[in-house]
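Entry type: protein chain
Record version: 2
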Amino acid sequence: MCVIIIPTKKHPTLEELESAEATNPHGGGIAWKGADGLLRYVKDIDAKEVFGIIEEEEPQFPYITHFRITSSGTTRPELCHPFPINHSVTLKTTWKGKSSLMFHNGTFSDWKQFVAPHSGSKDFPKGRIWSDSRAIAWLTYKTNRNIFRFIKEKIAIINLNGTVECYGDFQQEDTFLMSNRNHLYRKTTNHSYKKWPQQKKSLFPQTHQFY
């Protein structure tokens, strides 16, 4: 299970990012709205690189970070998150443009059944590198986001106007929204798990949008 972290008022510390990476070690990513008005992402990076981008870019709030643990597809740079919501759902590890960007937490086991009927269409993405998350990004484009009426996954989308939309139950920790809180537990020497100090928990509804 991956983790999506959405800073809404303050930036995460390096320690917080490394905690998320420790339980989701297969590649990090970050997406934000740049000063030029375009959306940008960098992925297949570690926690220190995510933190370096935050320090250098000082992205406006909200923005999205993600750390992956492979549950669908293979462990490879191209399948780190995010994915553009467009016809190509490019596999590039750095990108900028106008398409909304999607992050996923969960395992969508039926993705091939949803995608296969469209495999002969002209706008079907090229190549054989797929995961459930890339499939959801393409289906989000193909269905104009109506796919979320039929699946229950945790999704975060950053749009060109700077808003972030969340689908599924996201939890609040301090001023961050998180798709889960698993990384807030640290293993102690006796192999038990100790929970970090935390703020009051709150759950957001199936769809929530920030402005």
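Comment: The chain is about 20% helix and 25% strand.
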